[in-house]
Amino acid sequence: MMNLYPLVRRVLFAFEPERAHGLSMALLEVVYRLKLSRLLFGQRHYAPVRVLGLEFPNIVGLAAGLDKNGDHIDALAACGFGFIEIGTVTPRPQPGNPGPRLFRLADDEAIINRMGFNNDGVEHLVENVKASKRDCIIGINIGKNRDTPLEQAVDDYVSAFEQVYPYADYITVNISSPNTPGLRDLQHGEELDRLLKKLKQRQRDLRQEYDSYKPLLVKIAPDLTDDEIVQLVGTLLDNDIDGVIATNTSNQRPALKNARLAAEQGGLSGRPIQQQSDHVLNVVLKAIDGQIPVIAVGGIMTAADAQRKIRAGASLVQVYTGFIYSGPQLVADICERNVNG
Question: Does the CA dihedral 254-255-257-259 come out positive or negative?
């Protein structure tokens, strides 16, 4: 495995963050199409684990947000991931928030984004999934369109759920992004219960229609209080939700070195939310008490960070910001550390 990523990152980080993201995805595609992925990134580490009734090639996944449209599934899978979560996708295409909307805090090993569910719509994503080789588990993360009133949000989630169901290995309900106004209100009380009941009913119907069961997960925010987490988990368990992803990005700004960028609105990810995300994970795990699996994400910058979450009780981990800062080597390091202890 040739780790050229530190050099590549130096070049990419010379560009504005959203431009750098586009360039990095294009570069990954070139590497993949030239059949250089194995030479540069090594072979995928196979240490299969069974979670959610699915066999994952390894415990390391790519979190939603990096490949919103599923345009780069095969190229990203070739980086060694055991699973890829694409999206967040909405029923209709939308441009997201105006730019600039992505900020790199290199001294903090962090990112702030207020992308706003920019995506080309569920039909485009489905076509990409159908065209992919599917040599790892594929999760699809769904959300509501920005201009859909909150009282009609259930309709958006059900529409997206129905369309992705035949093509996903699992489906994640994103009600925790801080970048769609009012979205996090769906994490509480009757709004949450109504959404989950409707989705579970459609899951039962679609299971019969396709003779295939697709697990339904919910991704939660790191900014909830302990009491809110316990209540939320209770609602998830009452509705037979299959799993939890903890956590999304944060609205908080814990002691960031770059004060100017810290003032930007959006969700913070990376090393600064590590402690916060770990705390939420531990509260979630205690409340769930082993009844359903938890996928841990948030502040995983090293293999040791991932191992800490697995030892706490998470079944799988996902990376995003750590992948941007460390590249495919992080995936290999996590797999090796998990196997070798």
Answer: positive
pLDDT of 3: 81
Q: Among residues 132, 159, 177, 250, which one is catalytic?
A: 177
Backbone angles phi, psi at 245, to 5 degrees: -115, 120
**Residue 177 annotated among the catalytic residues of the structure:** yes
User: What is the predicted pLDDT for the residue at 340?
Assistant: 59
> What are the residue ranges of helices labelled H in 239-302?
259-262, 274-288
Residue numbers of the domain that contains 153: 45-340
How far is the first Cα of the chain from the last one, in angstroms, to the nearest whole number?
21
- Count how many domains the chain has: 1
Percent share of the chain, pLDDT over 90: 96
Residues 161-205 pLDDT 10s: 999 999 999 999 999 999 999 999 999 989 999 999 999 999 999
Domain CATH code at residue 316: 3.20.20.70
**Which residues are CB-contacts of 95 (< 8 A; sequence separation ≥ 6)?**
118
Q: Which of 31, 125, 20 is nearest to 77 (CA)?
A: 31
Task: Name the residue type at position 321.
Answer: T
Q: Identify the DSSP state of 241.
A: -
Residue 341 in this model has a pLDDT that exceeds 90: no
Report whether the peptide linkage leading into residue 247 is cis, meaning its omega lies within 30 degrees of zero.
yes
Which candidate, 230, 281, 288, 277, places its Cα nearest to that of 252? 277
Q: Are 129 and 192 in contact (CB under 8 A)?
A: no
Q: Note whether residue 171 is domain-resident.
A: yes
> Are 61 and 318 in contact, with CB atoms under 8 Å apart?
yes
Q: For residue 313, what are its two tokens?
A: 């009780």
Mean local confidence (pLDDT), 129-150: 97
Instruction: List C-alpha distances in Å: 13 to 2, 18, 91, 181, 260.
Output: 20, 10, 33, 30, 18
In a domain, 79, yes or no: yes
In a domain, 209, yes or no: yes
